[in-house]
Amino acid sequence: DIQMTQSPSTLSASVGDRVTITCRASQSISSWLAWYQQKPGKAPKLLIYKASSLESGVPSRFSGSGSGTEFTLTISSLQPDDFATYYCQQYNSYSLTFGGGTKVEIK
Amino acid sequence: EVQLVESGGGLVKPGGSLRLSCAASGFTFSSYSMNWVRQAPGKGLEWVSSISSSSSYIYYADSVKGRFTISRDNAKNSLYLQMNSLRAEDTAVYYCARPYDKGAFDIWGQGTMVTVSS
């Protein structure tokens, strides 16, 4: 199975900060990577698909980049609603795998 | 409105069985593969199983292979997960999810909690 490693696991930031989360795949997944946001008690919400495509309705402050084995999710200016946990997920193989998550906390 | 609604969760003893259901509405269910994803309390997301639109292709995570069975009824717009030989480590919220763009999940249900405990 393809392993997905996210870093950092926790991130403390302030409103207005630029935030970057990294996701590394154990083997090349081309651009078959998604990013999700999850808040406590809620289902995950798709933010980015195919590594850099913004899901409809998602604010443009969210962006994704990368291909192969290294990917990043960037929030250009952190807003109060963005404090949540973020997950990457590969869908290059039929055995889908998620990263361990990055919790974005208020500094 | 595009919607997925799970049901069937509950408390079950180790070794027991449970059947989860996921009712789909607002989209052409028979055109989409479907998936189950779970999340143990305080933990991350884990993909469990997927089924193609016509049930021709079925895949499982190693952690549930041989114990769980995914199925669907396109006439009833419903997805199922039969869970047998349940273990404490199967305790989780179980989500059904619809994939967009090959495997990114754009639609999720609200989740149903499964607790395996004596």
Automatic annotation (TrEMBL), chain A:
Q: Which SMART domains match?
A: IG (SM00409), IGv (SM00406)
- Recorded superkingdom: Eukaryota
Classify the main location: membrane
Task: Print the keywords alphabetically.
Answer: Adaptive immunity, Cell membrane, Immunity, Immunoglobulin, Immunoglobulin domain, Membrane, Secreted
GO cellular component annotations of the record: extracellular region; immunoglobulin complex; plasma membrane
Protein localization: Cell membrane; Secreted
What does the entry give for GO biological process?
A: adaptive immune response
Q: Which SUPFAM superfamilies match?
A: Immunoglobulin (SSF48726)
Q: Does Transport appear among the keywords?
A: no
Describe the location of the Ig-like domain by residue ranges: 2-99
Fetch the Pfam families from UniProt: V-set
Q: Under which name does UniProt file this protein? A: IGH + IGL c32_light_IGKV1-5_IGKJ4
